[in-house]
Amino acid sequence: MSLLSGKTAVITGAASGNGRAIAEAFADHGAAVVVADLQRDPRQGGTPTDELIEERGGEAVFVECDVTDYDDCVAAVEAADEFGGIDVMVNNAGIVGPQTPLVDLDLEAYRSLIEVNLDGVFHGAKAAALELVERGDGGSIINMSSVAGMVGYGGITPYSAAKGGVRLFSYALASELGPDGIRVNAIHPGVIETAMTIEDSPTVGTDEGEQLKATIPLRRFGEPSDVAGVCVFLASDLSAYVTAESIVIDGGNLNSV
Ligand code: NAD
User: Fold this and answer.
1) Residue 1: inside a domain, yes or no?
2) For atom 2 of ligand 1, which residue has the closest CA?
3) What CATH number is associated with residue 141?
4) For residue 69, is it within any domain?
5) Could you report the per-residue pLDDT of 75-113, keeping only the tens digit for each?
6) Ligand 1 near 66 CB (within 6 A)
7) Which residue, among 66, 165, 160, 75, has the nearest Cα to 120 in the 3D structure?
């Protein structure tokens, strides 16, 4: 029996990058997957995630979902009913947003980032929690933070604020949902090779990026599959006693000199 067989996962931002890799890994381990995203086409190109999973014999459905809209998140969670109902929620959708020093940043730009990266997690977690409690069979909520949610990164204050918020939001929610057997954890990737770090906030392939890479103990940037492996663990019963926890996925960068 596979690690996630019989489970259904809803993953926001699963068209591209980390979310797509999480969806693929979950399906490979036997889960049915709801791919919830603004768009169906992967930012990096290729076959849409739901189609890819079905081609490999798995079960998946795409739902158009903007995580800034609570009703969209409710609809994504309801889409899991097609496969027997939600067991796992991954609040992954996010953007890097403004890369501007605070003194040049206006409130509107700040708020637009918070709306996606923090309010979006609130919406997804609330929609999932209501359904998981109703189902009465426990569950796992995995919230996407970042190393920027563990330490402050100058130049991206809104991003750091949102990701730090996701971290403590996860711990607080774990306290609320623990009695129902629902676990809530945060994950904190470092630089992972996705459209976000290649196009939106170019790190991969830049001189600055190469210098950073040389300081990472494992001497490479992460792949989306590195993030996905941790999510499989947190979604599965292997992590049955793990909640209100943070897992950093950064090749050892944060905790070493
Ligand atoms: P990506 O841009 O490759 O993928 C993000 C996906 O989220 C896209 O498919 C996009 O359409 C979707 N999305 C964006 N806004 C949305 C919204 N409002 N509603 C629904 N879907 C939306 O980026 P990625 O690197 O895969 O990022 C995924 C998550 O991982 C983000 O939360 C990001 O902050 C986090 N993260 C990324 C890195 C990294 O180095 N790539 C590091 C730490 C954390």
Assistant:
1) no
2) 196
3) 3.40.50.720
4) yes
5) 999 999 999 999 999 999 999 999 999 999 999 999 999
6) yes
7) 66
How confident is the model over 221-254, as pLDDT tens digits?
Answer: 999 999 999 999 999 999 999 999 999 999 999 9
Does residue 243 lie within any of the structural domains? yes
Q: Is 159 labeled as catalytic in the residue annotation? A: yes
- Residue nearest to ligand 1 atom 41, measured at CA: 192
- Whether 106 is in a domain gets the answer yes
Q: How many domains does the chain have?
A: 1
- Which entry of 70, 159, 171, 241 is annotated as an active-site residue? 159
pLDDT tens digits, 11-54: 999 999 999 999 999 999 999 999 999 999 999 999 999 999 99
Averaged pLDDT score across all residues of the chain: 98
Residue 67 Cβ inside 6 Å of ligand 1? The answer reads: yes
Question: 54 lies in which domain range?
Answer: 8-256
In which residue are the tokens 């809803």 written? 10
Do 116 and 35 contact (CB within 8 A), yes or no?
A: no
Give the pTM: 0.99
Pair 61, 82: CB distance under 8 Å: yes
The CB density around residue 64, as the number of other CB atoms within 10 Å, is 13
